[in-house]
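hiii, so i know i said id send this last week but things got crazy w the move. better late than never?? heres the sequnce for the chain we talked about at the cafe, plus the structure i predicted for it. fair warning i was half asleep when i ran it
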Amino acid sequence: MDVLEAFREALDRLAPQDPLVLAVSGGGDSVAMAHLVHALGRQAVIAHLDHGLRPDSHLDAAFVEELGRRLGFPVFLERARLPREGNLEARAREARYAFLHRVARRVRARAILTAHTLDDQAETVLFQLVKGTGRALGIRERQGLVVRPLLGLERAALRAYLEALGEAWREDPTNQDLSLDRNYLRLAVLPLLEARFPGAKAALGRFARVQQEEDAFLEEEAARRLLPDPRFFVPAYRALPLLEAPPLLRRRALRRVLEGLGLRPEARLLELLEGALRGRAATLPEGVLARRKAGVLFLIPKEPRLPLPPGFRRARPGDRLASGKRLVEVLAAMGLPKELRPLWPVRAEGERVVEVYGQAETPMRLALEEARLALREGEVPVGAVLLHQGEVHRAHNRVEALRDPTAHAEMLLLRQVGEKNLKGATLYVTLEPCLMCYGALRQAGVRVVYGTENLKEGALTRYGVGEGMAGGLLEEECAKLLRGFFRSHREGCRSG
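okay and structure toks below
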């Protein structure tokens, strides 16, 4: 397949719609890309950012402007003003992509094309490997609007294409500086590898594609282990699904947590989060406190901001409920870490607190009543309540009574209601559903709120599937009931 046909195939797959923004530096790769787009008759504009890092960089801009005129593509030129401190290469890259996206918005482009080649891919994979990265993924074919249709083509083939057209390009002299790591790999290492192992660049390109496919799968699996707990107004996640996940997936999930905080997922920060999951509080950059309280991993900002709904005030030292119970005990039972308790919204009448914000416990209290009924009947104490169309349905485990391994509280409720589609219904259950129950509830469209994690058979904690679930409501009470049952069961077995 020649260069034009290979490019056509890649472009049709990655960017089937016009208009396109072409990132053209004036170098051979981007100039070849502009000619290829022109040969295919696609609608495009050329975008060139002059970083101003070389005295003659304005000549590159003039060259690109003339190229656009000859090809009939509108040209957008801009000169960057980059601060000299810090990582200049990273700043230049950020400025370039920001400029390209501005142009794309202006012309309503469907894609931004950059001219990364197979040589760039091989160089990047090698660079990532020798630098010790755990994810040598190389360059992706597509990221958002950015498309790289030349990743399957070698630089030499693009130069030959331009020469056949009688076209010239600009050479950046800094690309010959062997003191720069990437130039050294490009000019010294890759030629040696190709000489000894013909097709090495293509092999590295295939390696990158496989790595990216596997990475996408692992990222999806890791994301499933992240169960946000939205009750607390700060980033919070159920801890046990993370702790029970395979280490590879846990690290990836924690990387996503750090990225969600706007932090680089460095190894030392991942170690701090691992420690926080196991009970060792740690302070992350920007003053974020990572700590576990009961079954929740909290990421508490240095100055947390909790909303104050109309009619509510902040909790105060010495506050008590109408029953006389100390508010601080209620907040602790809700799983609130001490940093959030003074900020928590409450509604008071006179000196007594009459409502604690977010304390929607009633359905789970009913589920606990069902769990206690199960305990009295010699069953594993799991109870559930289903709210559907204004009606409340209740059930508890009856596996022993019915001699039916499927007679879990959740399954009994589904049979009791007797409807195939329960979209909009919510089920409250004291123990995280097993895979069987979760599958049935998911099929029926039921949202699930559970009390405590099921370490042995939990759909999320054990198997990593938990879409549509929330956990931790009355966690300690639900867990205490189960711990008491299994402790008695073990003691009975020993005495027998």
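btw The first strand starts at residue 20 and ends at 23. thought thatd interest u
miss u guys!!
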